[in-house]
Design a protein that fits this description.
The chain has helices at residues 15-28, 40-50, 55-68, 72-76, 80-87, 94-108, 117-120, 128-139, 148-157, 167-181, 186-199, 218-222, 317-320, 324-331, and strands at residues 238-246, 248-249, 252-257, 268-269, 272-275, 286-290, 293-301, 310-313. By secondary structure, it is of the alpha+beta class. The chain has 2 domains: 6-227, Endonuclease III, domain 1 (Orthogonal Bundle), CATH 1.10.340.30; 238-331, Nucleoside Triphosphate Pyrophosphohydrolase. The structure holds iron/sulfur cluster (SF4). Residues 153, 156-157, 200-201, 206-208, 211, 213-214, 217, 219-220, 225 line the site of iron/sulfur cluster.
Length: 333
């Protein structure tokens, strides 16, 4: 595969090419509920939900969430249990926790007010992507964004063999993204790059023949589209064995705040102990996965309420602890 070092990539996407991208986006963008206006609160909620989740899966959650929490004020005044209830099923629950914490802090600081990404990044859950997407889409700050879609488009457009998971190459891609919005509406160009990655420059079978930037795309010219972006080396699965102690009484379940396991931190779970087996254990009731953890679960029924636990109605479990792990425990009980 022939790829180019970053030094020879300049001039980056030429204004004529960015113009083509802009025209294409304005004509072909999908009609998504968060694109109806640029209200910063709605942009924030959608951008947070869209991390690790497809647009199609987010639509229903986004609409229900805004119905329940129509403003920053209403979200800041809610309880974390109410937020979990609206988030149940979306996964990556730290996003919900951070959203809730950030809403309280932002509301206390006077709400959204034309902040730059550097102002926003100090709030919980605001990484470089969320800060930049919010400040550009809602406030037109001239900064580029870098998510999986943009990384794919830029790596291919420049035929750049980037190790995008490493800081140096990620910074180079960020620079390319920043440069592509200069002289244009960052709100439009950032969304256009993400839309191109989601609908045309897809991970497999990119539709180069109908792509608005194909005439100057270096990967298309070199026919290296399918090889880019490079694949991040896979993280080894970590094996975890969880021994749960289940106590039920009158349709109530004994739970405690998890401070034992490295995942689902702070969430209500039945008490348990944890070990890290070297190989798949012989005896377990079911298997579960959370990020790179392969979890083997053993259920032990106990006759008396474990210390430090409290009883919670089973019908409220989804609200209290939205991870499907507790659901599975109850099904296997
Ligand atoms: S021409 Fe193909 S590889 Fe290049 S940006 Fe368009 S869809 Fe992606």
């Amino acid at each position: 595969m022939t790829t180019q070092p970053i030094a020879v990539l300049k001039p980056i996407m030429k204004p004529l090419v960015v113009k083509k991208l802009e025209t294409w986006f304005l004509k072909h963008q999908r009609d998504l509920p968060w694109r109806q206006d640029q209200d910063p609160y709605k942009v924030w909620i959608s951008e947070t939900m869209l991390q690790q989740t497809t647009s199609q899966a987010v639509i229903g959650y986004f609409q229900r969430f805004l119905k329940r929490f129509p403003s920053l004020k209403s979200l800041s005044e809610s309880s974390i249990e109410e937020v979990y209830e609206m988030w149940a099923g979306l996964g990556y629950y730290s996003r919900a926790r951070n959203l809730h914490k950030a809403a309280m802090e932002l509301y206390k600081d006077g709400g959204f007010n034309n902040q730059s990404y550097k102002d926003l990044i100090k709030y919980p859950g605001f990484g470089p992507y969320t800060s930049r997407s919010l400040s550009s889409i809602a406030f037109e700050e001239p900064v580029g964004v870098l998510d999986g879609n943009v990384i794919r488009v830029l790596s291919r457009y420049h035929n750049f063999k980037a190790q995008w998971w490493k800081t140096t190459d990620k910074n180079k891609l960020q620079e390319l993204s920043d440069q592509s919005v200069q002289g244009f509406s960052s709100r439009v160009i950032n969304q256009a790059l993400m839309e191109l990655g989601a609908t045309i420059c897809t991970p497999t079978n990119p539709k180069c023949l109908i792509c608005p930037v194909s005439s100057s795309c270096k990967a298309f010219k070199a026919q290296t589209q399918e090889e880019l972006p490079l694949k991040k080396p896979k993280k080894q699965h970590k094996l975890i064995y969880l021994n749960f102690y289940i106590y039920k009484q009158n349709n109530q379940l004994a739970l405690e705040k998890n401070s034992t396991s490295p995942f689902l931190k702070g969430q209500l779970l039945p008490p348990h102990d944890i070990s890290e087996p070297a190989a798949k254990p012989k005896e377990f009731d079911f298997q579960h996965s959370i990020t790179h953890y392969k979890i083997f679960v053993k259920i032990n029924k106990v006759k008396s309420k474990p210390q430090k636990t409290q009883l919670y109605p089973i019908k409220d479990i989804k609200k209290l602890t939205p991870s499907s792990l507790v659901d599975k425990i109850l099904k296997n009980y």
